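User: Fold this one for me? It's Ribonuclease Y.
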Amino acid sequence: MDLLVFWIVASGIVGVGAGAVGGNIVRKRWISQKEEKILTRQKEIILKAKDEALQIQEKAKDEEEKRRKNSDEIENRLRDREIMVDKRLDDLDAQRKDLENRRRDISRIRREIDEIRSKHLETLEKVAGMKKDEARIDLLNQVEKEYSADLVKKIKEYKQALKEDSEREARKILSTSLERIAGEFTAEHTSYTVALPSEELKGRIIGKEGRNVQAFEKMTGVDVIIDDTPDVVQVSSFDPVRRYIGKLTLEKLVEDGRIQPTRIEEVFKKTTEEVNKQIKEEGEQAAYDAGVPGLHPDLIKILGRLKFRTSYGQNQLKHGLEVSTIAGILAQELGADVNVAKKAGLLHDIGKAIDHEVEGAHHHISMDIARKYGLSEVVVNAIGAHHDDIDPKTVEAVLVRAADAISGARPGARRESVEHYMKRLTELENVTNNFKGVEKSFAIQAGREVRILVKPEEIDDLASLKLAKDIAQKIERDLQYPGTIKVNVIRETRAIEYAK
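Assistant: Here's what I get for Ribonuclease Y.
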């Protein structure tokens, strides 16, 4: 029994040992297979990397070969160009040497010609018995005497042809421009008279011991003129906006009937707000009508103040719109900058809105305002150059000046006092009468033409042309006038005899 147990135990131990040995052998085989797979994978990766390296190396060699070929080609082209440049330099050197030789030859020939001419002049002076300058003057005098009629005829022909061409082109441009202005601009007469429903309202306006009228004048900054004219009170001020506000304020107070200091202050403030709003709206509408967007808001307000400003009875806001329209059309016809012409035309008189507050000529004030609000120097020059003391630097500036003259000089645009009108015509005649050879002169067509009769024994046809030009320049230099003045010099010879 003991032997049997021993045998069983021994057999178990041997079995277990044999199993362990078998397991180790299997594990070693699995590990060996895994290592073989890893080695095989490594070999495959190494081979693939070597193939890729070879491909990259071959590609690099190909690119290097291409670069080498390109550099060889560039080097060959540069070499060819260098050879060509050297050849051209050689040709230029040869041409320069040839030119220098020709210049020397020309200088030598000129010296020889001058020597020959000097000898001939000396010979001629000895033969003629007069110097070269004397002979030239004598020759010119003879030619002028013999051919003065032909010269006058030629000058007249050229002037006539030039005049016809220029007038034809000017008529075409102006007619095209003016016929496109559909709006009708008339002279506006601003009234500063307030009508009263009854005469007793004058007393209420004055108030007790002048309390109401003093409060009104202090509040509005205008003068109230109460005279013997029935049912009428006048409002006066150098500031057109202030005058307009005072007029509206007084009209509202008269309509309301309650006239006392507190009510005056209340109505004045309300009216001022309404007028300021109206000024802004008028400026915006003017900019819109002129097609000039993007103006500064403060510039718009100054522009709107021109609604209440007149010059010779012409409303300045409408005048600015008219000048902007005409200048824009002229610029379009001539191929100039339409925007510059329209903007400068609209703002050319904007200085008149504040010329009672700022010292200086209105066109200088207009230029300062334009610069202040960032307008370009081209527009600034076009604004200021509509008067003669500032030279126009662009075509647009000339067009604005022409448009301003057209707007101001057209019939019915402006009005002036009879005294000023007569003084202007007298000055025009006096300027022409001071010229030598003038017999009489007449200012006609409301000063747009001056007709000059000359003495035929003192002024010939050639001198009459020069006289007309000199008088026109004198008028331009010494007189101030709207538009243009035609200088018409008339020379006639009359022969009178009596048959007995």
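One thing worth pointing out: Residues 102 and 414 are 70 Å apart (CA to CA).
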